[in-house]
Amino acid sequence: MDYKAKSRTFQAINKEVQNGKCRFDHKLQRQQDQWSLLQKSELIDSIFRNFPIDSVRAEELTDENGKKTYYIFDGVQRISTVCSFINNKFSLSKTLSPVTVDGVTYDIAGKKYKNLEEILQDKITNEEIRIVFFWDLTDDDRRLMFKRQNNGKALTNTQKRTAIESDAMSQEVFELASHPFFNKVLTKTQIKRDISRDIIRETFMLIETNAENDYTSFRATDIDKFVLLYDNGLDDEKISLLRTVLDKLDEAFEEKIKIAYTSLPMIFYAGYTVLKYKKSFSKFIEMVNDFISNYDSNEEYKQYLAKGTTSSENVRGRLTYWKNLIKNI
Questions:
Q1: Which end of the chain has fewer CB atoms within 10 angstroms, the N or the C?
Q2: Which of 301, 211, 298, 207 is nearest to 245 (CA)?
Q3: What residues contact 200, with CB distance under 8 A and at least 6 apart?
Q4: Mean pLDDT across the chain
Q5: What Cα–Cα distance (Å) separates residue 243 from each residue in 45, 57, 192, 253, 255?
Q6: How far, in Å, CA of 99 to CA of 84, rounded?
Q7: Shortest CA distance to 171 belongs to which of 226, 227, 216, 245?
Q8: What are the backbone dihedrals phi and psi of residue 69, each rounded to the nearest 5 degrees, phi first?
Q9: pTM
Q10: Strand ranges (DSSP E) for 24-179?
Q11: What is the pLDDT of residues 286-297, one digit of tens each?
């Protein structure tokens, strides 16, 4: 492992984000937009007041053509917040007090970047932040740094799980959990909490359940045990089939749909089985539509959601329901 620290202006970073040289989708990093409006506004306010901004960390990767891209894995909220503000994506909180720059006081409350005085705009774009670039990181290097950096921080269980699973498993989970279909079935809050990653892990557990291995408990400790078992992830054929399921569901549903995320692993597993045994996926889509339309009155299914949705009994109940449905295809 090697690293080197460099300073970048936010203007330069913003350009690198726009042209793809700087990215926020490192598999160890939480989704963007975790902060409240006040937290974002206070970061911008700190720049005006000359408060120091903590450095960030990034992994620099070089592709086969020699093109370098760096992925932020600590500091996404800081970098993405400033870039979003520069691009007029949000207005500052109305609770902010005026700031004084070069002896002149300015009101900033409720303003977007484009509405600020030029001197304030320049202060943001010319602000420098220290980035520590790492390269030649091993799987252990990434996980140890991630774990130690986030000691004491409020990560969700699914975000903490990223630090214990193998690089192969983490890469598969990250790739599938980033599928655009999740934007149609999860709320913004659920996306921020990276719920999609555990939905994919739970789908993996259903796929790997058989007569010898039962992975139908979705309790946190059981998900942890499962990901530790799969150092090499799932085989490529299974990943490819599951990716196709997500593609087909994304094509079938053009608009956002209302569905409990606790049902998604079962639906993904059912779609996976339909493809595996070459059944009609269009009929499967009809079943999913019918399930969504009649969900409120579906007492047979909802009995497995009343208490302890993660328990093996209730997971098996929901799974059996979908297995019985697709038998008719």
A1: N
A2: 207
A3: 172, 173, 176, 177, 242
A4: 88
A5: 43, 31, 22, 16, 19
A6: 21
A7: 227
A8: -130, 140
A9: 0.59
A10: 56-62, 68-74, 99-101, 104-106, 128-135
A11: 999 999 999 999
